[in-house]
Amino acid sequence: MxxxxxxxxxxxxxxxxxxxQRHKEYLALRKRIREALADGEATxxxxxxxxxxxxxxxxxxxMTMRKYNEVVAGEMNDDREYYYYKLKAxx
Length: 91
Fold this sequence. Notes:
The protein is of the alpha+beta class. The chain has helices at 5-12, 17-37, 44-51, 55-67; strands at residues 71-76, 83-87.
């Protein structure tokens, strides 16, 4: 048997084009959110405004990033409505 196991699996299992496209769009939105947070901490509405990503998608992607320790929640804003989020510093 020649070739690496992963190459054999890739030949047998084909990822649907729609799923590839959806993942590609997710990564693009995630990149825009990371760029919006590059200047420092921001609330969800501020991130949405800076990135141009709808707020509901910002919440979903931001919570995913939080789950995987890419962002951290800070203090609440003055109105006590939203937390400030920032990119986790590389350690």
